[in-house]
Amino acid sequence: MEPKVVATQPFPGQRPGTSGLRKKVRVFQQPGYLENFVQAIFDTQKELTGGALVLGGDGRFYNRTAIQIILRMAAANGVAKVLVGRGGILSTPAASHLIRKYGSQGGIVLSASHNPGGPDEDFGIKFNAANGGPASETITEAIYRRTQNLNRYRILDAADLDLDTLGVGQVGKMRVEIMDPVADYADLMASLFDFEAIRRLFASGHFRMKLDAMHAVTGPYAIEILENRLGAPGGTVMNGIPLEDFGGGHPDPNLAHAQELVALCQGPEGLDFGAASDGDGDRNMILGRDFFVTPSDSLAVLAANAHLVPGYADGIVGVARSMPTSQAADRVAKRLGIACYETPTGWKFFGNLLDAGRITLCGEESFGSGSDHVREKDGLWAILFWLNLLADRQEAVADIVQNHWRRYGRNFYTRHDYEGVDAPAAEALMDRLRTLLPTLPGKWLGDFKVAYADDFAYTDPVDASRSESQGIRIGLEGDSRLIFRLSGTGTQGATLRLYLESYEPDPTRHGQETQEALAPLIIIANELAQIQTRTGRAAPDVIT
Ligand code: VG1
Ligand code: CO
Question: What is the pLDDT of residues 412-422, one digit of tens each?
Answer without folding.
Answer: 999 999 999 99
